[in-house]
Specification:
The chain is α+β, with helices and mostly antiparallel strands. The protein folds into 3 domains: about 350 residues, SGNH hydrolase (Rossmann fold, 3-Layer(aba) Sandwich), CATH 3.40.50.1110; about 100 residues, Sandwich (Immunoglobulin-like); about 80 residues, Immunoglobulins (Immunoglobulin-like, Sandwich). Helix content is about 25%, strand content about 20%. The protein contains 15 helices and 22 strands. A hairpin with a 2-residue loop joins strand 3 and strand 4. The relative contact order is 0.12.
Length: about 600
């Protein structure tokens, strides 16, 4: 197995209906409100976390496993600043179920300590073995009890010589803010591909929260090879994978992340099968730029998305380089677009396929009544109340528009990369099938993290002052990032994609279906969509879930449907057909519907 980064949280706790959901919504709105009104970002004060956050197993390195034979060798990295300050000793262990396979003690002479281990061949199963890693502080004097074990890092050793190798690059969406490493959607996507191919999988994570798509002057002149000579504080072992990826940082950008992925693959003598990538949201500032349009160069959203996601139309000088607040646009303005990132990803060892993870309707106009009520809090009145209401409504509308425009830019970038490829199509902009009705604060929200369910807060509390250039921003709890259910929805939806299934020689989930949609439409006028199977009207027994591309969906028992778009823009409809046997197949329109 390769390295699996992240491990900073255990994911969102289950959320019940009614009061629990209202509390989570209020907490999420409080954070958003704090950001928009210019105050210090609100922080989740989650003192009563399940278990102990420290010592924290920060990373487990099982490279160059998986093994075909012989013992399993690896390293475990542990993080505990308080133990390091006291020069304390940690006791760590590796378990399979209740059986301990390896363990030892290490003195914390630095904030990150590394221990090596070996597990004999006969103690690892012939197929796969699930492992758990944790650690605790030993007492400094006789008669005292050891401290509690910290959070568990989970990993799996799989016997096999040809795993599906997945690298992930991008920002906090790909990083999986607030999730443990084995709950993130790139990991889950690799796990599903490994299971369906019978090969097992490896996941290498180079993403970091806050990353920009491209910082044109870092390194100077877009010399990506210079990234290999730079070591970020969030990467204590210097291999390019961000152990502290939870901590907000604009660098390394996506192009530097890809450079590190290639260097590690060449050093390890392996090729990659799939790269999962996103980017450009931080180049635009999702809240301060997209939200209310105050970052220079971001006011006209279609132009800004074309500039930052497609790499077209930047001014010669960055107008946002001196804005007096946290902004990815300070370094990310006017860089290379997603097509260049896709092409660089495909150039890595193994000539991997590239999956561009689209954005989602985490913020939506459909949920605007809730945040408007949130503005009516003590101390917010008069002009301040009006500004709050306008700002929150503007965030939802502009973010929803950004979702639509960025997804179309991703699709065009993948198509352009495929059109110039010398070895056939290799890129796809894949949809997570999220929709407005489960946006943050909406009545059916169920797939987004909120501050009230943010177990990564203790890590940021200790790591931010040391590692972040903007501690206040870093301490902001995750809002509107996929939670455990959201990450699973991403991965499950990706595995429906017919191109991905074709590339990995997986059987189709159902018959070949074609979604027919017009190329043009008008706001307020119905548009007719229809489905055929092998060129014919589908037989009875199928159910149809239509995703119209504007954040809405509808389920029918018929192969035709009409939909009215309420705003302008390119919208790419998708359809999931489900047969009586439960098998599903995804189809998408050949072209987006241009609505004017």
């Amino acid at each position: 197995m390769a390295r699996r980064r992240g491990g900073s949280g255990r994911g969102s706790a289950p959320r019940g209906p009614g009061a629990a959901r209202s509390a989570a919504a209020a907490a999420a709105a409080a954070v958003l409100l704090g950001q928009l009104l210019g105050g210090h970002p609100a922080v989740a004060q989650t003192a009563a976390l399940p278990g102990s956050a420290y010592p924290l197993v920060l990373d487990v390195d099982l490279t160059p496993n998986p093994v075909c034979s012989g013992p399993v060798r690896g390293r475990v990295q542990m993080y505990d600043p308080a133990a390091a300050k006291a020069g304390a000793t940690l006791e760590w262990r590796v378990r399979a179920g209740e059986e301990q396979l390896a363990g030892g003690e290490t003195v914390m002479d630095a904030k990150v300590s590394v221990a090596e281990f070996t597990i004999p061949f006969d103690r690892v199963g012939a197929a796969s073995t699930a492992l758990q890693f944790d650690a605790r502080v030993l007492p400094s004097s006789a008669g005292r009890e050891p401290g509690p074990y910290g959070k568990v890092w989970r990993d799996t050793v799989r016997r096999g010589c040809d795993p599906v190798r997945v690298a992930s690059v991008g920002d906090s969406v790909v990083w999986g803010q607030g999730l443990d490493h084995d709950q993130k959607f790139p990991y889950l996507t690799g796990e599903l591909l490994g299971r369906e191919t019978g090969r097992g999988h490896q996941h290498m994570d180079y993403s970091i929260s806050g990353a920009v798509l491209d910082a044109p002057e870092l390194p100077a002149g877009n010399d990506d090879a210079a990234c290999l000579r730079m070591q970020e504080k969030q990467d204590p072992d210097g291999d390019g994978e961000m152990e502290f990826g939870e901590v907000t940082q604009q660098m390394p950008d996506v192009f530097c992340q890809l450079e590190q992925a290639g260097a590690q693959a060449r050093a390890g003598g392996y090729g990659l099968d799939l790269v999962v990538v996103n980017g450009c949201i931080n180049d635009l500032d999702p809240f301060l730029g997209i939200g209310v349009g105050i970052t220079p160069g971001s006011k006209k959203l279609p132009e800004a998305v074309r500039r930052e996601c497609s790499g077209i139309g930047a001014a010669a000088e960055n107008p946002a380089k001196d804005v007096p607040y946290f902004s990815g646009a300070k370094v990310g303005y006017g860089g290379r677009g997603m097509q260049a990132a896709i092409e660089k990803a495909h150039s890595l060892p193994g000539r991997p396929k590239v999956l561009v993870a689209d954005f989602y309707y985490a913020l939506s106009r459909s949920s605007s009544p809730v945040p408007v009520k949130t503005c009516r809090t003590p101390g917010v009145a008069g002009a301040r109340l009006a500004a709050c209401t306008s700002a929150l409504g503007g965030v939802a509308g502009r973010y929803e528009q950004y979702t639509q425009l960025a997804n179309d830019a991703y699709r065009q970038a993948a198509s352009a990369a495929n059109a110039t490829s010398s070895d056939g199509p290799y890129a796809v902009a894949a949809d997570g099938l999220f929709s407005r009705d489960n946006a943050v604060l909406a009545p059916h929200s169920k797939v987004w993290g909120t501050p009230s369910s943010d177990p990564a807060f203790p890590l940021r509390t200790r790591a931010c002052p040391e590692l972040s250039q903007s501690p206040a921003q870093c301490l902001t709890a995750a809002v509107a990032h996929p939670d455990v259910d959201g990450a699973r929805q991403y991965a499950d939806a990706f595995l429906l994609n017919p191109l991905l299934r074709q590339w990995f020689h997986l059987p189709a989930g159902g018959p070949h279906a074609l979604l027919d949609a017009p190329r043009n439409g008008h706001t307020g006028s119905p548009v007719r969509l229809s489905a055929t199977i092998d060129g014919k009207e589908p037989p009875a027994g199928y159910s149809y879930r239509w995703y119209f591309g504007d954040g809405t969906q509808q389920e029918t028992g018929e192969a035709t449907v009409s939909h009215t778009f309420d705003r302008e823009g390119p919208f790419l409809p998708r359809l999931v057909l489900t047969g009586q046997d439960g098998r599903q197949v995804l189809s998408e329109a050949a072209d987006a519907v241009t609505v004017s």
